[in-house]
Amino acid sequence: EVQLVESGGGLVQPGRSLRLSCAASGFTFEDYAMHWVRQVPGKGLEWVSAINWHSAGMGYADSVKGRFTISRDNARKSLYLQMNSLRPEDTALYYCAKDIKAIYGDFVSYLEYWGQGNLVTVSS
Amino acid sequence: QSVLTQPPSVSGAPGQRVTISCTGSSSNIGAGYDVHWYQQLPGTAPKLLIYGNNNRPSGVPDRFSGSKSGASASLAITGLQAEDEADYYCQSYDRSLSAVLFGGGTKLTVL
Question: Which of A1, A70, A89, B20 has the fewest CB atoms inside 10 Å of its own CB, making it the most exposed?
């Protein structure tokens, strides 16, 4: 059974940093691209970032580019999101998700499994 | 404002059929990128509902179907049931933005 468990969220002041983690199990982690998607409570889904299977390629939404960094440790079966210079508008539930392909952005790739999400609140 | 446009809400009575549209452009759906649909029940994480325009993962009832034409796609739900009440999101990829896209989401209300 595929499991994705996010952790590391919480309350943080504007301008500070936070690192989210996602522990994966139930599949060969190193074979798939991974994503972070966020959702402001009561609002829609927003793609944040993705990373290819061996970290050779990664992408970011314009809203986080230059502030957030995605990474992965295939040996630990873990995905990370380093969030710097946090803003109140970054407050959201952050989901980790598994792609169906090794390279995201393929004509057919999609987010096959999702974690339960981890809440990040940016407030003074 | 999402690059993929969905109606904010749709509704239907039990047993009826509803459709949810997802309109993109020549740099995403119209460029040949597949459209996928996710269902988000209240208080839960999104779940894959339709992949590759018109394919259902194991366990998804055949009441749910998808289609794609040009730069648009649609999700159809037949035989509406109370448990279908949820938010539905389309998803694709945009080659100009180099970004995964989600539609703004559509709230389905079963009357």
Answer: A1
